[in-house]
Amino acid sequence: MRRRQVRVAELLREEVSEILQKMKDPRVGFASVTRVEVSPDLRRARVMVSVLGDEEARERTLQAMESARGHIRAALAERLHLRFVPEIVFSLDRSIEHGARIQELLREIREEGKGVGSR
Domain-by-domain residue ranges, the chain? Predict the structure, then answer.
């Protein structure tokens, strides 16, 4: 990724995070922007979001963000001095869930290994 892409991605991550914290939509749960991927032409941004809660809470939060996409872009246009504010697509980031599941499996394997030697 080019240096400008990285800089714009980080700037978007910070600003979208702040905007989401101020959203009044009751559908938005506890969400955090984990990373942003920006296209080489800086016209599209994929905003990866981690949401605490069950699958229903995640979907509600994602729907609320999609509904507010125009508002979020307008807020970004006011805050940022970019020639173009990228089109935003929100995606769930499940890496935290996957990491927790891996940790759980490793713990189970360690516990099973302890039981094998004691027979």
Answer: 3-94
DSSP single-letter state for residue 86: P
DSSP three-state, residue 112: helix
DSSP state, residue 42: S
pLDDT in tens, the chain (119 residues): 689 899 999 999 999 999 988 888 888 878 889 999 999 999 999 999 998 888 888 889 899 999 999 999 999 999 988 888 999 999 998 777 767 778 888 888 888 878 665 54
In this structure, the number of other CB atoms found within 10 A of the CB of residue 64 comes to 18
Residue 43 DSSP label: S
Short-list 38, 57, 56, CA closest to 48: 38
CA 26 to chain centre: 18
Q: Kind and range of the H or E element at 17?
A: helix 3-22
Q: Which amino acid is at 118?
A: S
Q: Which CATH class is domain 3-94?
A: alpha beta
- Can you tell me the distance from the alpha carbon of 71 to that of 58, in angstroms, rounded to the nearest whole number? 20
Per the listing, tokens 């307008």 go with 74
